[in-house]
């Protein structure tokens, strides 16, 4: 295996952005309380206003449109032109899944086996269609699975009250026991922390909610599923992701792979968050890509980049209507075969360890075989 | 060809990798599932406008039930912001369609007379924006006295808690002084609470504060709610005039 490259600066920028939006979400969540006199925090519905799924559904179901939801048009426009960045860079629920996905253990090989595109990723599109049709005939139940509704509801009725209860119990217990030596007691440290928390984090009174067990269990299940598949919710469930996938299925920012440099190591697939098949630009699925830049960052040969282009390589803006018109499987296979052949010949391959060349040769044999089968 | 034209053209006739390949039949099936769900929601008794769940008490400013369900996204903003912890996610009180929509749980909290925060934060205006004076006139339900549990009614003991907490300018709970006999056969004058259905807004503070625990002796149900003209306890004064 090639040595792991240093994480690209754009991945760090993405992480920073995600953390920023996640913290903003948490801040707005904590601001959703009583402020004197009789004011809720300002702008607490910001993320719901960004959500085109909410806007579309409630418009379809009730033929009414809340002015602030015009903000969701920005999301739609960006997605339409640039692709599904929202999921990878903005969505705080996505950031949470991203975080838990990164906690997965396991070797790259194991991740590779489950990391690729899966037919079940279409499930979210079917859910979207079902929700939209139901909304069209007047039943707006998209909130069950809308990511911001799901996240906020789970936090407000389940996770936050539980945290509140736990923290208060912990600090009360420390206060009661108050271990220490002589005048040096633990409360000297914990009481200022408790004071800070009760000012900025804890609820005024312990909240209780009906049905919090069900909502909390669902939330924890969804988070735990990240250990089963990377960003399980975003890949298989999220109807907002599906909507953005449909809108951004033909973006101008596209994955481009330099076939000369690629050594078919498939490392790009290991940390792919969306299962977007970055290893093969012909199969790359913009609808599943979160533009997380992991593939670009992980590529030891620096063969992957994202460029502004109207079309995937190698059909980029094909001007020949005779070729562009047909499916041209020969061309596709020809292009696929090329780099592997080069590796086998020991050509432009950066990392030409014996194992790699052997594997490339196997690859070539397989692909040549497939190529020969084609007419 | 101009790349921009090409890009636009791809939306009309997408190339292979830009297609989602969802399959016509599967998409149709998904659409039918959505349609079927609506049809099944539609035959739940509460959709008939003749059957009302007394526990389905919506926050003040909530739209009529059909419109409310068409807008509410079950986000929990109102549940978070409610300063008295009165708003809870419903389970089946509003049918399957209403799972996780907000309802008021008076044994835990009441609707504060001076507060309209839920209407401030609702992102889809399923709870429409009402200012406090307007909100104070909206009936979200109606209180009723359980004479079998109420201290003055059932046990001939003095209690005026519900009347003291009632927030309306003219109290919706009033007393009828009654002469009753205690176990020794002595005459007692007891104030027996009653609810005026014209004044009561169903805020539920009487239920929350009632000293009879477990099941309060004064409870609120959804009947009489302003948003729903069919769910009323009284014939309107017009119909009296006609009758």
Describe this structure in words.
- The complex is a heterodimer of chains A (375) and B (243).
- By secondary structure, chain A is mostly helical.
- Chain A folds into two domains: 1-160 and 231-314, no CATH class; 329-375.
- Chain A is built from 18 helices and four strands.
- A two-stranded antiparallel sheet of chain A has the order 1-2.
- In chain A, strand 1 (180-181) and strand 2 form a beta hairpin.
- Mean pLDDT of chain A is 82; it is low at 313-356 and 368-375.
- Chain B has three domains: 3-43, no CATH class; 51-139, Alpha-Beta Plaits; 142-221, Alpha-Beta Plaits, CATH 3.30.70.
- Chain B has helices at 3-12, 24-42, 65-71, 77-81, 117-121, 132-135, 151-155, 161-165, 205-209, 237-242, and strands at 87-89, 102-104, 142-145, 173-181, 187-195, 218-221.
- Chain B is an alpha+beta fold and 243 residues long.
- In chain B, 29% of the residues lie in helices and 13% in strands.
- Chains A and B meet through helix 3, helix 8, helix 9 and helix 11 of A and helix 1, helix 2, helix 3, helix 4 and helix 5 of B.
Observed structural traits:
heterodimer; A: 375 residues; mainly alpha; two-stranded antiparallel sheet; 57% helix; disordered C terminus; B: 243 residues; Alpha-Beta Plaits; 3 domains; two-stranded antiparallel ribbon; 6 strands
């Amino acid at each position: 295996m090639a040595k792991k490259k240093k994480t690209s600066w754009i991945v760090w920028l993405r992480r920073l952005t995600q953390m920023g939006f996640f913290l903003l979400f948490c801040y707005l969540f904590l601001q959703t309380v009583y402020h004197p006199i009789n004011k809720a925090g300002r702008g607490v519905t910001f993320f719901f206003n960004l959500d085109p799924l909410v806007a579309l559904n409630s418009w379809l179901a009730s033929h009414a449109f809340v002015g602030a939801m015009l903000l969701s048009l920005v999301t739609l426009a960006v997605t339409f032109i640039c692709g599904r960045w929202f999921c990878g860079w903005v969505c705080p629920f996505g950031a949470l899944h991203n975080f838990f996905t990164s906690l997965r253990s396991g070797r790259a090989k194991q991740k590779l086996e489950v990391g690729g595109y899966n037919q079940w990723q279409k499930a979210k599109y079917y859910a979207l269609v079902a929700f939209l049709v139901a909304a069209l005939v007047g039943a707006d139940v998209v909130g069950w699975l809308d990511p911001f509704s799901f996240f906020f509801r789970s936090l407000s009725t389940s996770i936050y009250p539980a945290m509140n209860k736990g923290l208060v119990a912990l600090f009360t217990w420390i206060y009661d026991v108050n271990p220490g030596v002589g005048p040096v007691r633990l409360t000297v440290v914990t009481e200022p922390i408790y004071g800070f928390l009760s000012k900025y984090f804890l609820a005024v009174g312990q909240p209780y909610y009906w049905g919090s067990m069900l909502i909390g269990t669902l939330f924890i299940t969804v988070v735990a599923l990240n250990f089963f598949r990377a960003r399980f919710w975003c890949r298989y469930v999220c109807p907002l992701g599906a909507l953005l996938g449909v809108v951004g299925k033909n973006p101008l920012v596209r994955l481009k792979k330099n076939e000369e440099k690629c050594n078919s190591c498939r490392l790009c697939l290991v940390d792919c968050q969306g299962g977007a098949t970055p290893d093969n630009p012909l199969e790359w699925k913009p609808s599943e890509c979160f533009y997380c830049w992991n593939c670009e960052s992980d590529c030891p040969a620096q063969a992957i980049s994202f460029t502004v282009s109207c079309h995937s390589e190698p059909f980029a803006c094909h001007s020949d209507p005779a070729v562009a018109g047909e499916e041209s499987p020969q061309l596709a296979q020809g292009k696929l075969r090329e780099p592997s052949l080069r590796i086998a010949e020991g050509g432009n391959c950066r990392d030409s360890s014996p194992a790699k060349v052997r594997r490339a040769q196997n690859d070539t044999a397989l692909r040549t075989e497939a190529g020969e089968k084609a007419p | 060809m101009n790349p921009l034209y090409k890009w636009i053209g791809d939306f009309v006739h997408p190339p292979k990798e830009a297609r989602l390949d969802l399959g016509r039949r599967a998409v149709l099936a998904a659409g039918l599932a959505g349609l079927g769900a609506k049809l099944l929601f539609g035959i739940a008794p509460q959709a008939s406008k003749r059957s009302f769940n007394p526990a389905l008490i919506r926050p003040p400013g909530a739209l009529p039930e059909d419109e409310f369900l068409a807008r509410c996204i079950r986000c929990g903003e109102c549940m978070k912001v409610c300063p008295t912890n009165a708003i809870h996610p419903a389970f089946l009180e509003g049918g399957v369609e209403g799972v996780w929509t907000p309802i008021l749980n008076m044994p835990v909290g009441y609707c504060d007379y001076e507060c309209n925060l839920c209407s401030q934060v609702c992102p889809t205006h399923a709870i429409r924006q009402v200012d406090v004076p307007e909100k104070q006139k909206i009936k979200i339900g109606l209180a009723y006295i359980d004479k079998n549990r109420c201290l003055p009614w059932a046990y001939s003991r003095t209690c005026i808690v519900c009347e003291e907490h009632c927030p309306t300018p003219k109290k919706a709970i009033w007393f009828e002084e009654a002469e009753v006999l205690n176990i020794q056969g002595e005459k007692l004058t007891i104030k027996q609470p009653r609810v005026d259905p014209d004044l009561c807004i169903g805020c539920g503070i009487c239920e929350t504060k009632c000293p009879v625990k477990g099941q309060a002796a004064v409870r609120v149900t959804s009947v009489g709610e302003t948003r729903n003209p069919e769910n009323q306890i009284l014939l309107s004064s017009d119909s009296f005039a006609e009758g």
